[in-house]
Amino acid sequence: MINRREFIGIGAAASATVLLPGCTRTSYAPNYPLQDANGHLLWQNWSGTEHAYPVNRAAPATVDELRNLLVAAPAPIRPVGAGHSFTGVCTSEGTLLSLDNLSGLVSHDAKANTATVKAGTRLQQLGQLLADINQDMLNIPDINKQSLAGAISTGTHGTGIQLPAMHGRVESFRILTLAGEEKNCSPTENADLFHAALVGMGSFGIMTEYTLKNWPLQRTERRVDIVPLDELLRDWQSLYLNNRNAEFFYIPFTGIAARILHNQTTDEPTPRGPDKDMDTLMDLKKLRDYLSWSSSMRRRVAEMLAGKHGSERAVDYSWKLMASERSVRFKEMEFHLPLENQLAALKEVIATIESKCPDVFFPIEARVIQRDSNAWLSPFYERDSGSIAVHTYYEDNHQYMFDLIEPIFRKYGGRPHWGKLHSLGAADFEKLYPKWQDVAALRREMDPQGKLLNPFLKKVWGV
C-alpha cells in the first residue's frame, strides 16, 4: 500500500522514463518593480494576480489610532488582511491598512461557547486561542493564513451540509465607521448594517471585533482516500449527508479523486504528520509536463496505479486537521451553485478542461455549504450550495477560467466567491442577490465619498 503522494510520484516517474522530455512553457508570473517612480514600495497579493504601490501603509494598534487614521489617510483605504484574495478586493494606491496589531482574544463565555475576538486575528492563531478556552471553530476553510475579518468579509467557508460558512456563526461584530463611530451590530442592534456588512468586503467601515458561536473542544477524525471519480460522484450525496465534513479533489486527466471526510470521535490522537501537498502538486506538474500531449496516456498511467493507493487517517482537533499548508502558489476561481446543480456543472467543467485545457494539473475541488440568512451578500444566502473551485499554477495562464469555466458556472446559477477570480459586476450581482439594492443603498450611506472603494470594488458596486 502506498499513500497518495507516492501514487502520483510513481506515475510521474514512470512516464518520465518512457516518454518525451518535459515541455517548455512560457511563465505568466508577473515580475513587478520593487518600487514605482515615486519611491512607493510594491505590494503584491499571495498569488501574484494583483499588485499596488500604496502611498501609505498603516498598522494601528488601538481603535483610537484607527479612528484618527480614517480621518486623514489617503484614499482608497483598504484593509489588507493576509492578501490571500485572488481578486483586487484589497489593492490600494492610497492607504493599505493592516489589522495585525488588532488581534487576540477579548473575552469568552464558557457556558455559551462564545468568544469575542479582534478582527485582525489570523485563523491559525484563532485555533489555538479557542483551544486554550476549550472551544473550537465550527467550520474552517482549507487555508488558515487569512485574518478573521478578511475571511468573514469575503464569505470564506469550509464544507458540511449541516454547517454554515464562517459568517454564519457570527453573533455580533463591531465596526468603525468613516465618521469615527464604533457601532455594535447584531440581528437585534443596527440590524440592517449587520446583515449588509457581515459579508461586505470592507465596503462599509473597518471591522474591529467579532463575537463567534463555537463548539466545545472535541477531537476529529480525518480520512483521505483515493477513489475512482465515477464511484465518488455516485456516492457524493450520501457522503455529504452522512459525514460532518465532506469534500473531494478531482485530479484532471486521471479519473481519480481524493475523498476527504472529517467526523467527531473519542479516539486517541493520531497526529496528521507533515503536510505533503506541495510534493504532491509538484509531482502532478511533472505528470502534466511529460504527458500533456496525450490525455489518454496521462489517464492510463494514473489508472495503472489506481489500485495501489492507501488511506490517510489522523485524529486531532479540527483546527489542526482541516486546514492545509498550501505552500505552492496558485490562482483560483470558485463559484457556489444551487446544490442540485453541482454535479451537472462539475461534469461539464471536467469535460471542458480535459478536452481543451491540457496544461491544467491542479485538482478541482468540490464542497457543500449550508444555506444562511444572516448575511445579505452571502453566496449561500437562502440556498444550500455546492461549490466548485478550479485552480491554476501561479506561473500558468489562467485566462481559460474566464473564457471556458466561468460561463459554465454562470449557466448553472453560480455566485462567485468574493475573494476569488471572476468577471462579474453590479448588474450581475443585482440579479443574483435579492437584497442587492438595499445593501448598495446602505453602502452609499456609510461611505458617500467612496473612500473605501478601489477599482475592483467600484466595478462590484457599479460606481
From TrEMBL:
SUPFAM superfamilies: FAD-binding/transporter-associated domain-like. The keyword Oxidoreductase applies. Pfam families: ALO, FAD_binding_4. One of its GO terms (cellular component) is membrane. Residues 50-217 form the FAD-binding PCMH-type domain. It comes from the Bacteria. Keywords: FAD, Flavoprotein, Oxidoreductase. This is FAD-linked oxidoreductase.
